[in-house]
Design goal:
With 357 residues, this protein is an alpha/beta fold. It has two domains: 9-104 and 168-264, 4-Layer Sandwich (Metallo-beta-lactamase, Chain A), CATH 3.60.15; 127-164 and 281-357, Orthogonal Bundle (Arc Repressor Mutant, subunit A), CATH 1.10.10. 38% of the residues lie in helices and 16% in strands. A seven-stranded mixed β-sheet has the order 1-2-3-4-5-6-7. Strands 8-9-10-11 form a four-stranded mixed β-sheet, with helices on one face. It has a three-stranded antiparallel β-sheet with strand order 12-14-13. Helix 5 packs across helix 11 (313-332) and helix 10 (295-301) packs across helix 11. The chain is globular, with a radius of gyration of 21 Å. Bound molecules: zinc ion (2 copies). Residues 78, 80, 196, 215 line the site of one zinc ion.
Length: 357
């Protein structure tokens, strides 16, 4: 069940937290932060693109004593639609600039060209996307799911995912690592934290010893780290673990995440999340110690937060993509090998290798 919506509140003088509903999702809401400035309020993230969410955002501006039309800018932590979804609508209502890291801006270009393709075939690409189902199945088949398993699996959760293909707006500005962002009267530094997405950004406010962490560091949950079919070269898990160390060094008393609630001990949370992934890596090595296995077989044997046979196809795809990110990490470090040219994707331990456990 989705958690209840927190009220709009002051976190530090001139900095507000507004919960924007994330409908049909167990996360329940995105925490958007509004920072007052002489040029007008600046948002960190805008929330999911939906009327209910928009109304909550508008109410949040009002509770903070301002209104959307006054908005000066939107700093986007990352391109996911529960963060960047409403940026375009805020820009239309206010002329605010929208800014994000270049690497996530590239994702929008890919999505919009995919949508153009979609639009040529289907006049309602935001409804049910047949391409999504095709791609979903392709991922599962390449991973090694059998026909019987695919037929027996619970129905895919296509509708909600397909909605993520609503057009996301391209940014007006890009933000680099270490940049002092344009929030007049504030000293706020962008910290590039690739992993959850290639262009994920956190924002550090040293004067208040706070970190606006987006989805990079969350309390009680870990962000999804996965390999997409387009990504043949990246090491998102390696990037993510490095990005965790990067923020752990920052002078911080409190973390303002985009989901759940604020929390205090950043160093401890970084340690816990790192441990979670190191355990996952060790589990994979232990599975491979039994002999070569397909990506699907490995994913099915790992510990997830629900039993594998209760996972709908969409979640199995996420689990497979996350497992692929862990295998990429191991392969980069000569702790696993992928058998070249073999379908489904199959992995084993390098010769003479003993798992680190
Ligand atoms: Zn995200
Ligand atoms: Zn999110």
């Amino acid at each position: 069940m989705a958690p209840s919506l927190p009220v709009t509140e002051v976190v530090r003088p001139g900095l507000w937290s507004i919960a924007v509903p994330f409908p049909d999702n167990p996360l329940g809401y995105t925490l958007v932060y509004l920072i007052e400035s002489d040029r007008g309020p600046v948002l960190v993230d805008a929330g999911w693109d939906d009327d209910e969410s928009w109304d909550a955002l508008v109410d949040g501006f009002r509770a903070a004593g301002t209104n959307v039309a006054e908005c000066y800018g939107v700093l986007v932590t990352h391109v996911h639609p529960d963060h960047h979804g409403l940026s375009g609508r805020v820009r239309e209502a206010s002329d605010a600039w929208v800014a994000m890291h270049e690497r996530d801006a590239v994702t929008i270009q890919h999505l919009s060209s995919a949508m153009e393709q979609d639009g040529k075939r289907d006049r309602h690409p935001t409804q049910t996307s047949p391409d999504f189902t095709d791609e979903l199945l392709a991922v599962l088949v390449d991973a090694g799911a059998s026909e019987t398993e695919l037929a027996a699996a619970p129905a895919p959760t296509v509708r909600r995912r397909a909605r993520q293909f609503r057009p996301l707006v391209a940014p007006d500005r890009t933000v680099d690592d270490g940049e002092h962002v344009d929030v007049p009267g504030w000293d706020i530094t962008a910290v590039w934290t690739p992993g959850h997405t290639p262009g994920h950004l956190c924002f550090h406010v040293p004067e208040h010893r706070i970190l606006l962490s987006g989805d990079h560091v969350l309390p009680t949950i870990t962000p999804h780290i996965s390999i997409s079919r387009r990504d043949r070269a990246g090491d998102p898990l390696g990037d993510f673990l490095d990005s965790l160390q990067k923020v752990a060094c920052l002078d911080t008393d409190e973390v303002l995440p985009a989901h759940r609630h604020r929390f205090g001990d950043l160093g401890q949370r970084v340690t816990e999340i790192t441990r979670h992934h190191l355990d996952h890596l060790a589990d994979i090595e232990a599975i491979l110690a039994d002999g070569p296995a397909s990506l699907w077989q490995i994913a099915a044997r790992l510990r997830w937060n629900r039993p594998w046979d209760q996972y709908p196809l969409g979640l199995r795809r996420s689990a497979v993509n996350e497992t692929a990110a862990h295998l990429r990490y191991l392969a980069r470090r000569d702790r696993a090998v992928r058998f070249k040219g073999v379908r489904p994707f199959t992995f084993g331990l390098p010769e003479g290798h003993l798992p680190e456990r």
